DNA sequence: CTAGGGTTAG
């Protein structure tokens, strides 16, 4: 095709819009070079922002080689693209380059992008630096910037900083409140999240689906079934769309509160489901001893959707099998995972298998499995196996003893391990040893510390 | 061209 220069510059924006591959865009770049239109900032910007959609790397190299200072729009596109590609360090690096070499200052698009990148990777130090620049540039006046700052401190689990930003806000919109609720949940303060929500209602701000996802998460942590149910009715009454996230959060809440039947009702009513949704529903069945239902749901997923099960889903289904004594099914899932889906088993999967065999009383098989695993068993697996030994006996004393020693060496601070060790010594009739081990329980924690500091 | 959300063994 032949274009006159003026008609060419008219057509180029459309060409950009139509290009959906890197080679096509590179061809366009060649065209710009040939026609000297590459010296027009408008086209350069368009090239960079189009490239950002497809290949951040290419976009970056074009920006670096521009013969004139790139537009702020181009810088912003690049930072955003890096943030969206989870390359937070690169996003921050581009932001620094913008400040050093760029023409003009960062604007109220730049800061949300770079802050989002910092939040994603919990880069608190970098985030604080950006916060300082935000203050200096007077950008706190922008609500997007303020809300992203709030999100940053929530993600970095520095709740006091989040509160500071939140308290200093004069105007709070639904995003500000949602971010604050989310920050409380992220910092293991679910009851705080609930209070913030109540305050939000008093301020006459209406929650949206994102707010409710965070709030439901707080309900799950607190097992507040009544509140969870009222959120569910709120959703139904207000015709809030049950999207994947909201539906998943609801199912999770019902799971945690022991109401799997309700989980299933929500699950069935959802239109779109992703892998997480299936995983959560299957693990709900797993936790409530409904192994058969879990297995049938797994098969249903394989048959009815194009989703490919992942490592987490296999953890869930293996756990379902082990809790319901479905030994053959569990073993079959394990080999399907390895042979059909080519997923490399990790500690969790081995743990499920040891648990599956151990609970079923197949102690020797469990021992054999542990010995044949390519990794050394962790505390969880050791405890699971030794509990099986305590219950079903029938492992040779010397083999059991070695694993007990391993457990006590790796986790000497947990009192529960000494209880287990003492019980096993009793099984083998070593009474004095059992007595000594029981003495060691004193002064040690019986449960793991979860690190929850609820207010 | 802008901000916020959910999962896995014991």
From TrEMBL:
Keywords: Hydrolase, Repeat
Main enzyme class: hydrolase
The EC number(s) this enzyme carries: 3.4.24.-
Entry annotated with the keyword Repeat: yes
InterPro entries for the chain: E_motif, PPR_At4g14850-like_plant, PPR_rpt, TPR-like_helical_dom_sf
Taxonomy, superkingdom: Eukaryota
PPR repeats (start-end): 173-207, 274-308
Any Pfam family hit: E_motif
Gene Ontology molecular function terms on file: hydrolase activity; RNA binding
One GO BP: RNA modification
Keyword check for Acetylation: no
The name this protein goes by in its record: Pentatricopeptide repeat-containing protein
Annotated source species: Apostasia shenzhenica
Organism taxonomic ancestry: Eukaryota, Viridiplantae, Streptophyta, Embryophyta, Tracheophyta
Gene name as annotated: PCMP-H28
